[in-house]
C-alpha cells in the first residue's frame, strides 16, 4: 500500500484593428479597476491551445489571476498553430493593449511580429516557453520553468525507478517528445540526454523517439507504433503526463503492464498523472507548475509601471504538486 507521506514527498521531489484568423478563438476577458481610480491594465494573452490537462490549468490560472487583479484580459486560443498566435498578437497591437503576453507554440519565427509590438511601444512578456530572436530586447522577460533541468531530473529519477524495479543490464528507452520545435520538447530531451550521456553511455539507449504533440491521442498512437517496431522497450520517457497516459492505453492494449513491463517517467504533475501513479502505471512524475497566472499579473503590473524585472522569472513549485496529489486521491486511505 502506498504511504501518503512518501507519495507526496516523492512527487514534490521529482516532480509547469483586424480580427483574428478565422480558426483562432478569442474570449473577451474580465475587466475592472486596478485601484486608486486609475485605468485598468489591458492584457492581451495568446495561449498555445488546450492540448493537455496542464495547458487547461494554465489557462484557468491566467484568467482567474487577471480577474483577481482587476485587469481587462483579451484571451485567444491559438489551437497549436503559430500563424494563429501571430494574428492574435497583431490584433492586440491594433487594439493598443497595455501589455502582450503569450506562450509560444514553437521557438523560432517571432522576430517580425515582435518588432511590430516594439515599434508600437507595447511590452511583451513570454509565459511558459522561450523563443529565439535576433534581438533580446524584443521581449521583456520569461515567466516559466527550467525545462532542461526537468529533463535532467527525469533521468536522475529514472535511475531510482530502475533500481527499485530491480532492473539489471542494458536499458532500452522510448521517448515521446512534445510538439516539434517547442521549447519544452527541445529542452527536456536535451536535459535527459545530458545525464544519459554523462552517466549511462554504456547501458542506456534511446531506441526510438517521436513527437506525440503533447496530446493524449498522440501518445497513444505513437506508443502503439513504438511497440510494433520495438516490442522489447524497457522504459518510456514522456515529455508530459497526457502523452504518458495515452501511452498507457497502448501498452495495455498490447497486453503489457505499464509501470511493470514498461517503466514510465513523465513530466507535469496533473491530476490524471497522479491517479495513474497511484495505480502503479506511472512510476515517477517530474513537476512542472502550470499556475503561472499570479506571477504573470505581478510582472505585467511592474512592466506597465516601467519597473525593471528579471530576464527570467522561474515558476514557483512544490505546493502545486501536493495540492494535485490531494485532489487526485480524495478518498484513498493510507
TrEMBL record:
Belongs to the bacterial solute-binding protein 2 family. Residues 45-307 form the Periplasmic binding protein domain. GO terms for molecular function: carbohydrate binding. This is LacI family transcriptional regulator. It is found in: Cell envelope. Gene3D superfamilies: 3.40.50.2300. GO terms for cellular component: cell envelope. CDD domains: PBP1_galactofuranose_YtfQ-like (cd06309). InterPro entries: Peripla_BP_I, SBP_2_dom, TAT_signal. It holds the Pfam family Peripla_BP_4. Keywords: Signal.
